[in-house]
Amino acid sequence: MSLTDLAVQRCISPSCGATYSTSEALVACGKCGSLLDVVYDWNRGKPPTSLKDFEQMWSRRHEPLRFSGVWRFHELLPFANPAAVVTVGEGQTLLQQADGVAKYVGLNAGRLYLQYEGMNPSGSFKDNGMSAAFTHARAIGAKRAACASTGNTSASLAMYCSVTKLMKAIIFVGSGKISYGKLAQALDYGALTVQIAGDFDDAMARVKEVSRDLGIYLVNSVNPFRLEGQKTIMFRVLEALRWEVPDWIVVPGGNLGNSSAFGKAFSELLELGLIDRAPRLAVINAVGANTLYELYENRKMRWDSATGDMCQACNYYKELDRDGKKASTLASAIEINRPVNLTKCLRALEVCDGVVREVTDQDIMDAKAQVGTGGIGCEPASAASVAGAKMLRREGVIAADDRVVCILTGHLLKDPTATVAYHTTDQDQFNKVLGSRGVKRASFANRAVAVPNDLDEIIKAIQLYS
Ligand code: F0G
């Protein structure tokens, strides 16, 4: 048996609460249409009595199960038997103290950490969730897997398919809506790539229909197993802080899978008595793709222990349709107006006393350049977390001495176009890529120096600029 008998899938709406076996591939409750959670019978499972117990796993890093940054926490996501997990070595990521970025954000030295998920095999945090989804898909015998993507989910899916040969990848992307770094991965890894004449929200709606009609396994974050893998990002953060809970987790918000997974991780750790408080959660939207911000901060939509009015979202989406409003940000990874995990994210914001902010593309690009100066580059969407932390610090919501962890979700090389345009001396290139999105300045540009092909001139330039 690949799947354990410790887990079921359960509707997140307590008034429904329908449960389903983990042997089913589901993306919504069959009775009420709400999202599903994977829930565990912790009394029969063997969760650790202390998070420190995980340190013993470090000495067993030669075993694939304990090498994986996801599966070494297997006891906290025990839906599959240890022998049946799929891993390609995901989750070897880094929590880096970043004093330069702390200064930029307005935090005291030693208080800002960057959780660099760009170190994953496909270059983004998605591999955490993909290893869990693949473990589930293999257990139930799926042959084809699909996703809609702004690029990272598709790169991760394509990579897991090509490495493991377990399934054939079919990816749906919006036309012209995906950066070259990510498209290159999907193409190179051999995924069937379907470019929809529309944006991510259109592709998402279509892939759900196609997967349902053709019986294809869907790996978007509506798949509850994906989020089980993404919980482990928080376990690694705690591990790197020697199991101390930080004051803040700051994460970009797109389809809201991460924020939802983080909330679930902390509520389970609280339930198990493994932590005594949850950190506060800040989810950061781009101004041009700000559904969560609009609903949570402006319209005060709340989970309210599942009694909140979820129709507020439907009404908002009707307004978007009426006004023909599409998501638009150069942080293409989070260019999403209809986040599929909205309700789970609202629940996470409740668990973690959360806040939501929106940041401009200018804020994002400047924060990104500051992160890069510290030597671990990220793609634009990731830098929304740093820009958001700066905003919250300026507002006094985050205090100067709070311990803050910003999640860097994807690697710099995912979207070199935006980075090169930011640093360029070519005004046309700047305007085309960034100016068209409202970015006016490259406040922290590191300009290339043009010199003639002449030894004296080169030496002169180096002496002048270094
Ligand atoms: N950052 C990056 C680099 C992403 O690729 C994504 C999502 C997010 C942040 C947002 O995360 O959805 O958990 O709120 N990318 C998806 C994709 C949508 O298709 O690759 P979220």
Notes on the protein architecture:
There is one protein chain. The chain has 466 residues and is an alpha/beta fold. The chain has a domain of 221 residues: Rossmann fold (3-Layer(aba) Sandwich), CATH 3.40.50.1100. Strands 4-5-13-10-11-12 form a six-stranded mixed beta sheet, sandwiched between helices. The model has no long low-confidence stretch (mean pLDDT 96). The structure holds ligand F0G.
Short description:
The chain has a domain at 94-122 and 226-417: 3-Layer(aba) Sandwich (Rossmann fold). It contains 16 helices and 13 strands.
Label the structural class: alpha/beta
What count of helical segments does DSSP give? 16
Mean pLDDT: 96
Beta-strand level of the residues, as a percent range? Answer: 5-15%
Q: Which key features would you list for this structure?
A:
466 residues; alpha/beta; six-stranded mixed sheet; 16 helices; 14% strand
Give the topology, please.
Layout lengths: L6 E5 L7 E3 L14 E5 L23 H4 L26 E4 L1 H7 L6 E5 L9 H14 L4 E6 L2 H13 L3 E7 L5 H9 L3 E5 L3 H15 L2 E2 L5 H17 L7 E5 L4 H15 L8 E7 L4 H8 L12 H12 L19 H10 L3 E5 L1 H13 L6 H15 L9 E5 L7 H8 L3 H7 L21 H11 L1
Parallel strand pairs: 5-13, 6-7, 6-9, 7-8, 10-11, 10-13, 11-12
Antiparallel strand pairs: 1-2, 1-3, 4-5
Helix pairs in contact: 3-4, 3-7, 4-5, 7-8, 8-11, 12-13, 14-15
The chain binds ligand F0G.
